[in-house]
Amino acid sequence: MADTDRQQPPFELSRVTASPTSKRLQVMNLSHVQTKSEIQQQLTSMGVHPRKQFGQHFLIDGNLMRKLADSAGIGSNDLIIEVGPGTGGLSDLLIARAKRLICVEIDRNMCKLLCDRFSTHESFTLIEGDCLSRKHEINRTLAAEIDSYLGNGAVKLE
User: Fold this and answer.
1) How many CA atoms lie within 13 A of 17 on its CB side?
2) 69-100, pLDDT tens digit by residue?
3) What tens digit of pLDDT does each residue of 112-147 get?
């Protein structure tokens, strides 16, 4: 996959199908999701491998990713926080549904890939680091991003 292909926003396609036993039509959303070979190609081109210390596993089943995104009930005015987006496979589907997507990624290599991939999306924010600053405390940068979206000091850190 060429670098220019990764930087373009995900594309949306629709397919209309009719059931052979009924005259109802169904519109199926066919948003692009990363395949296993695309993920492997991206990682190989960067010279990186999944890191055990971060417990990295990548979603490769497009149907599962679509079901996850669909079942979340995301509205067009919603803020989504994705922890550990990896190569951004699920992020493609989330960013198309929500008003704003904040991704928190601890792996610097994945952060570089995500920056390259989603740099054209104004609604995308990437925080490099852990989503927690301590065991029971959210990362202050993440809290500030949530607060800026919700406004009026909605997020309080003690």
Assistant:
1) 8
2) 999 999 999 999 999 999 999 999 999 999 99
3) 999 999 999 999 999 999 999 988 889 999 999 998
DSSP letters along 89-139, please? HHHHHHHHHSSEEEEEE--HHHHHHHHHHHTT-TTEEEEES-SEEETTEE-
Other residues' Cβ atoms within 10 Å of the Cβ of residue 66? 17
86 touches 108 (CB < 8 A): no
DSSP string, 8-26: SPPP--EEEEE-TT---EE
Cα–Cα distance between 43 and 28 in angstroms, integer? Answer: 30
